[in-house]
């Protein structure tokens, strides 16, 4: 039979639901030559590539989670590039330069040795970095009484005795840095400095990192005591 006759008969007598099985248009005729849309074959190939690239064991929840890709990249072992070693060398050079500029930056806070000297007595106090006292001693501990506690000689003996106690108790192993805090301008100030720069303080003066003065300065305030005059 003539195929044209069959097609015309199917259009006339068959229902519209079954016409799609008889009148199929090829895909190359359905798409326009100058169309802006993507080709059907290219899209299908891209979909096939995506399906093949995904892990079949991976569930839908893991695929949708944003952390799955991050964990994959963290678990993958990547070879180290030579730029990483260069960065480490640059970091080491910068740290070395920083240590040269500030040599005490990598160490802990310093201990403090307070020197309180006034015209009647001299007191020496060694404290930890947090302020807790380790040793506190005055000229009265050496047998000087009343007016005998003032003067250059008692302060000199006190400073040499304190330095000997620090060495005997083994505190030089704990003290890495030492800060001297002066207070007052009595005769014991000069005596302590003389002992520190002498033979008695040769093991301690190398630990000194800072010297400060905490002498009280009065701005106004109460009236001063009357000056004592003899004769």
From TrEMBL:
A GO molecular function annotation here is: structural constituent of ribosome
InterPro entries the record matches: Ribosomal_uS11, Ribosomal_uS11_sf
| Biological process terms in GO annotation | translation
Query: SUPFAM superfamilies attached here?
Result: Translational machinery components (SSF53137)
Top-level division of the source organism's lineage: Eukaryota
The Polar residues compositionally biased stretches are: 52-73
Tell me, in one coarse class, where this protein mainly resides: mitochondrion
Keyword annotations from UniProtKB, A to Z: Mitochondrion, Ribonucleoprotein, Ribosomal protein
Compartments in which it is found: Mitochondrion
Q: Where is this region: Disordered?
A: 36-84
Entry GO terms, CC = mitochondrion; ribonucleoprotein complex; ribosome
Q: What does this protein do?
A: Component of the mitochondrial ribosome (mitoribosome), a dedicated translation machinery responsible for the synthesis of mitochondrial genome-encoded proteins, including at least some of the essential transmembrane subunits of the mitochondrial respiratory chain. The mitoribosomes are attached to the mitochondrial inner membrane and translation products are cotranslationally integrated into the membrane.
Q: Indicate the family of this protein.
A: Belongs to the universal ribosomal protein uS11 family.
Instruction: Kindly provide the name given to this protein in its UniProt entry.
Output: Small ribosomal subunit protein uS11m
Q: Which organism was this protein described from? A: Monascus purpureus
């Amino acid at each position: 039979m003539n195929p044209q006759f069959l097609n015309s008969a199917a259009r006339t007598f068959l229902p519209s639901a079954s016409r799609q099985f008889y009148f199929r248009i090829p895909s190359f005729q359905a798409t326009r030559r100058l169309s802006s849309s993507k080709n059907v074959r290219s899209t299908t190939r891209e979909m096939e590539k995506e399906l093949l690239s995904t892990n079949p064991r991976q569930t839908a929840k893991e695929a949708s989670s944003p952390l799955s890709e991050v964990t994959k990249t963290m678990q993958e072992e990547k070879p180290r590039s030579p730029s990483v070693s260069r960065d480490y060398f640059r970091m080491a050079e910068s740290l070395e330069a920083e240590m040269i500029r500030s040599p005490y930056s990598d160490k802990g806070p310093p201990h403090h040795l307070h020197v309180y000297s006034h015209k009647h007595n001299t007191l020496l106090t060694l404290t930890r970095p947090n302020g807790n006292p380790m040793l506190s001693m005055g000229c009265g501990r050496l047998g000087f009484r009343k007016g005998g506690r003032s003067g250059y000689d008692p302060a000199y003996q006190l400073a040499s005795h304190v330095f000997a106690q620090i060495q005997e108790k083994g505190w030089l192993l704990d003290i890495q840095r030492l800060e001297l805090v002066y207070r007052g301008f009595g005769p014991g100030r000069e005596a302590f400095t003389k002992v520190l720069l002498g033979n008695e303080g040769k093991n301690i003066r190398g630990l000194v990192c800072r010297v400060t003065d905490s002498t009280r300065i009065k701005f106004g305030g109460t009236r001063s005591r009357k000056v004592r005059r003899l004769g």
